[in-house]
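Annual report, structural modelling task.

Input specification for the adenosine-5'-triphosphate complex:
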Amino acid sequence: MDSSSIIRKTAADQRVTPNFLDYAAERQRFSWGAVGRELQGVAQAGGGINIAAEAVERHASGALRDKTAFRFLSRGKPARDVSFGELSRLTSRFANVLSQLGIDRGERVFVLAGRIPELYVAVLGGLKHGAVVSPLFSAFGPEPIATRVNLGAGRVLVTSDMLYERKVAKWRDKMPTLDHVLLLAEDGGSTNIPGTLDLATLMAAAGDTSEVAATGAEDMSLLHFTSGTTGTPKGAVHVHGAVITHFATGRYALDLHADDIYWCTADPGWVTGTSYGIIAPLLHGVTSIIDSEEFDAERWYGLLQDEGVTVWYTAPTAVRMLMKAGAAIPRKYRFPQLRFIASVGEPLNPEAVRWGKEVLGLPIHDNWWQTETGGIMIANTPAFDIKPGSMGRPLPGIDAAIMRRHEDGTATLIEEPDVEGELALKRGWPSMFRAYLNNEERYRKCFAGPNNEWYLTGDLAKRDADGYFWFVGRADDVIKSAGHLIGPFEVESALMEHPAVAEAGVIGKPDPVVGEVVKAFVSLKKGFEESEALRMELLGHARKRLGAAVAPKEIAFLPSLPRTRSGKIMRRLLKARELGLPEGDTSTLEGNA
Ligand code: ATP
Ligand code: MG
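The model returned the following structure:
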């Protein structure tokens, strides 16, 4: 790594004193027990813990009662501000509705809705009641919805009249566990569809106070399905104790301060939109803006400016789309309030880190985690310099390592720096998943190493001598060519440095001589046309940057790359299509409703 490209942290960059200043000292001082004691402001019977109590009740009964918790935005409508106090009353109503329907603690409530107030109320109200909540993408088609509801034995589904009629009604008899469907009317009125209940009517009739369920740290809270990037999505089981991780990571990785205006662009249909789109900001008493609209470069720059967003948590796919939309749009806007930007979901190309600095005036802090970890594990934080292209360092309380997995299923730690292996985390952080739903065998196989203490993540990475982690690729995506192991990320990042390239997806294509050859698919930025000359230029650019052994041998242009709903490039689809093989599970493919 060229040291001139390191982005140094200086005091002048910080608009407020960061929560996290001294990496080594904070890691030394840190304990999960101490963070847990900072929470638990609302004493739970038997020393229990409940996510909704910490996120909502703690503030609703204190000084922040009238402060805006969520500001809901939607095109053509006035903003709707919901205070912590109102959120407490609404979530109590929803918890009471569940009680009346006879839903017990631990039973499953699915939520299928756009980013509208009712979704947030149902998630938090469900948790308050002690139900297990599973938020789904509203853009899922009927089959993925039914599969998930069945896998999770959903008893209640909260959705809208339109979504119900389009996606659920015909499949209803294929979901035998589903006893109650609660509908909200998209036109704001009430609904009257046979076999369903009108949510607004039930909410109006329910009382607006309720006891928080006396859940314990190990009680199941949320069921999240993985993105399905590498295959059929898995159901990851999470517990109420996870809230301690959400709180700590909001402090260290997102630098949340009480007076922030925070925007997490993720949908609650995947884990980021829940852990950091709902829970973490509430825990810190922060005001979140929530936009119900889909991506639109002009709108997004406008929101950052007009809402005075201070902390922004987004994803590489969004950053790449903003880059693709060109430099002219952001010139019309100013972002004087913005002070911290973070990103998750896919590797963040160095080019994107630098784009942040140029266009928004701030570097983008990449961080790494997955559905299974429940919260951010490795991050670029305010406490140290950014090496663009690195995921950063393990947060306080997190021990990460690189491991070698052996044929017999055992694994050993790799101590030397700069060696590729599987990224692993030492168990013991509170938000670790506790099961893959109905797949004990698969869960068990994730743990190995000394004392069986390490969770192996399925991602390949390396750690440098300064303790920074570098993503190489998913174990499934790594390309073996003429004796070299090639991570697609490295090749994609090199292509992204070319001014014409908006995004790149790289696969290994079977080859009788070298095993696999590297093939890249690229989409172009606005203003560039595909041509043979450009293809040759890109091949040359990549060869210069990467050397002939690693550079792609073939490049194909696509208008855009296939992506999951959570915004991840689906390399396995690029590969299946290239080789004419079956596409496998496409339930999470964007555009596949
Ligand atoms: P599935 O497990 O169903 O294939 P998925 O792994 O994409 O889907 P998620 O849990 O949503 O489902 O995504 C987590 C994965 O995303 C990580 O394991 C990693 O591969 C990738 N990822 C997340 N953040 C980063 C990052 N900062 N850098 C590189 N990769 C990342
Ligand atoms: Mg995964």
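The chain has a mean pLDDT of 94.
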